Amino acid sequence: MTSWLTIFSRAAAVAVPLAAGALTIAYSDVIKQAPAGKERSPQPTPVRVITLQPTDLVPRVTGYGTIAPAREWRAVARVEGEVVQTSDLLANGEIAEAGTELLRIDDTDLRLSLAQTDAQLAALDVKDETLSASLEINKSDLELSRSDLKRQEDLNTQGIATQAALDQIRRQELAARLKVTDIENQLALNSAEREVLKAQRAIAARSLEFTTVTAPYDVRIGSVEAEEGQVVTRGQTLFTAEGIDAVEIAAQFSIGRIGPLVRSLGKGATVMTLDARVRLPVPGHTVTWDATVARVGEAIDARTQSAAVVVRVDQPMAQVQAGQRPPLRRNMFVEVELSAPPRKALVAPRDAVRGGEALVVTEEGTLEKRPVTVDYSIDSVSVITGGLKAGDRLVVTDPAIAVPGMKVKPVEDKALKAEIGRMAMGRETAE
Fold this sequence. Notes:
Elements: H1 2-26, H2 28-32, E1 45-51, E2 55-57, E3 60-69, E4 72-76, E5 81-86, E6 95-96, E7 101-105, H3 108-158, H4 163-209, E8 212-214, E9 219-224, E10 231-232, E11 237-243, E12 246-254, H5 255-263, E13 275-282, E14 285-300, E15 306-314, E16 333-339, E17 343-349, E18 357-361, E19 367-371, E20 373-378, E21 381-386, E22 393-395, E23 408-412, H6 414-425
Parallel strand pairs: 1-23
Antiparallel strand pairs: 1-22, 2-17, 3-12, 3-16, 4-11, 5-7, 5-10, 6-9, 7-8, 9-11, 12-15, 13-14, 13-16, 14-15, 17-21, 18-19, 18-22, 20-21
Helix pairs in contact: 3-4
């Protein structure tokens, strides 16, 4: 008995631990599982927005053109002769002030012609004096002949003088009258000849003035085609020059873009009332010049549907600063900006409005697509006239991650808003 109990006790000592181990293994997966937690909702997607508010805006449009002098001068020879003198300033690129003598043509022949004409006029004066003296004598002789004729006619009437004697006296009176008439005619011819000589002298004197070529205004010399010792003919180009008092730029502007700009000025406004500036990018900065609208080109470019607006910059040479502001020279390509006075407007980034639609964040924090009316665009800014209002939160995030109806978290993009304000006013981006 004792032996059987001993065997049973030993068997139980082995079986009980084995059974406990099996149960532990069977329920091990249950023991490892964590207690079930609460279900979590997805977080709203952050999107960048700008809150729209009326912004100061300078309505403007940009065009491009090349510099041309406002005045061009082509010196043409108006007399024939040899070039006997040229100025040191008569060279390409030199600047000559108004009144500077640039070239002289030999005037010897003209001066000889003047001397000859003066001599002929002096000879006519002597002839007139001689003829005038003869005229007085012949007039006296004519008076005597007329007195004799009157006396013979009286005597013939009384029967004292014969008809033959009367006819003789009449012939003498006619001869005296003829001499007076001849002298008066000669004096008249002399007077006509004098007028011809005076006209010839005036022509020669005027031509004498053309032998000296002077700058009519401050000019920059261009091409030079006449040199000292060269014989030039009438009508030959001597040299070319351009005025330095002003330059003009015929810049091309799209009709579709310049129209809204003019409308912003109000009823009755024209392109001529716009402000103008000329800009030239140079290393490190952009140089600007104040300008005025001079005129508008007549024709519209059929290919680009653009019009030429000519602006004028006065005294560009006086504004030159070495290393900072270069001179405005012919054929230089520049940018021209036409602008209207500043006004308040609702503006948005141009990229935020696509196909006439934009995304905004609603009061409920969801995205909503709205149709938007754009009046016109300036650079990267669009002027909004419909579909959006002040206080709307306009989405400026990449549309690939912004879907209408989705829950979002708006984050104000202050840097972009400030940049939009600078662009609306036409100011350069801050460094």
